[in-house]
Amino acid sequence: MIAADEALALARTVHELYAAKGKKVVYVNMKKEQLDDEALAKLIVGPSGNLRAPTLRKGKTLVVGFNQETYEAIFG
Length: 76
Prior knowledge:
Blueprint: H1 4-11, E1 16-21, E2 24-29, H2 37-44, E3 55-58, E4 61-64, H3 68-75
Parallel strand pairs: 1-4
Antiparallel strand pairs: 1-2, 3-4
Helix pairs in contact: 1-2
C-alpha cells in the first residue's frame, strides 16, 4: 500500500494524470495545472487513505483507477 503522502509525491513526478472513477475520467496536465494537495488527493487517494488501485505508470503518465477506454488509449 502507498500512503497518501507518498501518493501525492508520486503524482507530482508525472506530466499527465488520468483519474478514473466509474465511467468518468479526469485528465490533469500536471505540468500546467497546479493542484493543491487536497484536490489531488480527492483524485488519487481512496477511502482507506492510500493510493487507489489499480494504479499504473507509463513513463511520465499515471493512471489511477480503471477505465477500459483509457487503458486502451495509453497502453495499447
